[in-house]
Amino acid sequence: MATMTYRDEELRSTTRVPGDSSLRSVFLVAARYTLITTVLLGIIYPLVITGLAHLVMPQKADGSLIVRNGQVVGSALLAQNFTGPAYFHPRPSAAGNGYDATSSGGSNLGPTSQALVSRIDASVADWHKIDPGARGPVPIGLVTTSASGLDPDISPEGAYYQVPMVAAARHLPKATVRALVKEHIQGRQLGLLGEPRVNVLELNLALDALAPPTAAAK
Amino acid sequence: MTANGWFQFGFFFLVLLVCIRPLGIYMAGVFNGKYGFLGWLEKPIYRVSGIHEDQEMTWRGYTVAMLLFSFVSLLVTYVIERAQHILPWNPQHLPGVEPFLAWNTAASFTTNTNWQNYTPETTMSYFTQMAGLAYHNFFSAAVGIACAIALIRGIARRESKTIGNFWVDTTRACLYVLLPVCLVGALFLVSQGCIQNLHPYTVAHTVQGQTQTIAQGPVASQEIIKELGTNGGGFTNANSAHPFENPTPLSNFTEMFLIFLIGGALTVTLGRMTGSPGHGWAVFACMAILFAAGFTTAYWAEAQASPVLHGVNQHTSALQSGGNMEGKETRFGVMNSALFATVTTDTSCGAVNSMHDSFMPLGGMVPLMNIMLGCIIFGGVGSGLYGILIYVVLSVFIAGLMVGRTPEYLGKKIESYDVKMTMLFVLIFPLVILVLSAISSLYPMGLSSLANHGPHGLSEILYAFASTAANNGSAFAGLNGNTHWYNSALGFNMLGGRFLMIIPMLALAGNLARKKSIPPSPGTFPVNTALFTVLLTGVILIVGALTFFPALSLGPILEHLLLQHGVLFS
Questions:
Q1: Which domain holds residue B460?
Q2: Could you tell me if residue B502 is inside a domain?
Q3: CB A63 to CB B216 under 8 A?
Q4: Is the pTM of this model over 0.90?
Q5: Is-contact B65 B71, C-beta < 8 A?
Q6: Closest chain A C-alpha to B330 CA, distance in angstroms
Q7: Across residues A61-70, what is the average pLDDT?
C-alpha cells in the first residue's frame, strides 16, 4: 500500500478553452439547435417515411384493413370480439372494456393475484357452458388475456379445441372445420422465429365463406 | 423450454455478435471525424446554430452544453404537448395535455426513460408524437452516445484539457449512426405490418355487427428509433406488444436486435479508441454472461405451469407455447416474451412485448434485477457503456487493493478523486431507489396505487423506482403512477437518474483525460483477460446483490415460495 498515492488532483484550475462559451451563448446555440433539428428529425423524417411507405405498401401502412362489401370489417392484425358457438373466439381481452383498439393493454394481474385466479376459473366455466361437450382442460391461451388485449391470434391448440363447438353450430362435419383450421395455421416465421398461430378474424371470414352461419346459430 | 426456443436464442446472439464489430469500428471512425459523406446535412446545422465545430470543450463546457440542450429541448416538448390542439396533425382533436402530465412526459422522454403515465392513443396527437416524443428518442440517445464517447476519450487521451465538442458528437451520433438505420428499418417494419399514416382513427364494422375504433398514426418511424435508441416509449399503451408496433416474430427479432445493437457495438468502439481491442471484448464477455444468465432464468420461470390454476392445459407442445400466457402474445409465446423482457431491461430501453407485472415471480425478478444492476448489460445507448465503465474502474480499484499497488486503468493511475466520483455514481442509485420505495411501502399515498397485493405489491413499488432511476421506463404496470406522490417522486427519480449520473461521469472523464499515461509494468492488472471478465462480473453481482438482495427476498423470492404453497392475495 506504500506505493499508493492519494493526491487529489481536483479540477480547481480555471483554465478555459475557446470551446467553453458563456452560458448565454450556449443557451442561444441550444435554442437554435433544438429548432433546426426538430424540423429535420421531428417533422421531415417521419413525413418522408410516411410518403415512402404509402408509395410502396399502402395497405400495410394503413393498418392491414379488411374490406368486405365496401365496408371495413376490421384489421387483420387486431382481435375483434366474437361471441356464440358459430365463430372461433379470440383470447379474452383487457383492452378497455374488451377489444378496444384505442385503449390497448393487459390485465397486469400477478401470479399470486386472487383476482386473476378467479377470472381464469370463470373463463374455464364459461368454456364448459358454451360448449357442453368440451373435452378436458382448456388451452391456456383461451383463458388468459394477452399483453395488448388485441392479440389477433390463438394457438393451433386453442383453435382445435373450438372445432367441435363451431362444427356443431354450423352443422358441418368436424373434419371439414378441422381442415380449415389446419389450412390457417401460420408456422414459425422463416421456419424458426416465434410460435405457430392461427389468425382468428381470417379463419372466421373463411368459415363464413364456406358455410354462412344460420340465423339461429348467429 | 424447447429446443427451438434455445435455437432462437442462439441465433439471436450470433447475429448480434456478427454485427457489432463492423458497427463499433464504424462508430470509432465517426467520432474521430473520419467520415464526411453527410457534411451537406451536418454543416448547415452547425452554421445555423452557431456551433464552432473545430473547437473542443473541457468536461465542464461539455456538461454545460449537455444540460442546457436537455433543458431547452425539454421545454420545447412541454410547449408542444400543451399546445397540440392548435398544432397540425391532430385528426382526433385531442385537447392540450394537462400541465403536470405534460411536464412528467417531457422529463421522461428527455432523460431517455420514457415512463408513461398516460394512454397515448387518447392523449397525444400525431404532431406531439413526432416532433415532441420521437424527437427525444433521437436526441436522448444521441446525447447518451456523445457522453460515452467523451468518457472513452478521457480514458484514451493523455494530458488533454478537452474531451470533445458536445454538439458535434451529438449531431454525428444522430446523422451518421441513428438516422441511416432508421430510414431502412422503419420501412422494413412497415413491410411486416407496422402502420405509418396520419389518418383519423378508422371505424370498423365487425363481422358480428359491432363497431371497433382503430387507432392509427405514424408508428413505424417512431418504433424504429424507440428500439435503436433504447428509449422504449410506446406509440400505443401496449407498447411493442401491440400488433401495429410489433406485428410479426420477425419484426420482434429486429426490434430486440436493434435494442442491443449500439450498446454491444460501443464495447468495440471502446476497444478501438483506447487502442486495446481485447479490453472491449473482455467487457463484452461480461455483458454476454449476465445476459445469458438472465434469459435462462426468465425463460425457465415463464415456461412453468402455475400451481394455482385448475382445468387449464398449460403444457408446452408443438401446438401451443404453454407456460404462463397471461399478459403475453400468441405470436411471441413464452420464449420471445422472456427474451424481450431480458433484452429491454439489460438495456435502458423499457419497451415491452409482454406485461412484466404478470410474469411468474422469478420470471419478473429478472427484469427487476437487470434494472437494479443499472441497465448496464449492453446497456442503454451510451448510458450502458458509461455505467459499466464505472464498474470497470471499481474493479480495477479493488484489484489494485488486492495486490497492494496503485490501481491503473489502461495506463491511467486511478486516484482518490476518480474513486470518489465512481462511488458517487454507485451510491446515489440504490439510495434513491430503496429510500423512496421504503417511503411508498409505509404510507397510503404509496400503497393506494397498487394493483396487486402481498409481496407482488412490493415488487411493483421497487420496479417503479428502479425503472425510473435507471431511466429504463418499463413497469410492473398495474401500479397507478398517475398520482401526486408517484408523479413527483418518479419525476425526480428520472431527472436524478440521468443527470446526477452523467455529471460525476463527465468529471471522471475530464480528470482521466488530464493524466499522464504510464507504461504497463509487471504489476499492472491486465484488463483484457478472462480473469478480468470474471472479476468485473463478480463486482457487478456483489455490489448489486449486497445492495438489493434484502428487498428482492421480501418481493419476488417470497412470492415464489408462497405461490408454491398456493397462497393468493386479494
A1: 383-564
A2: yes
A3: yes
A4: yes
A5: no
A6: 6
A7: 94
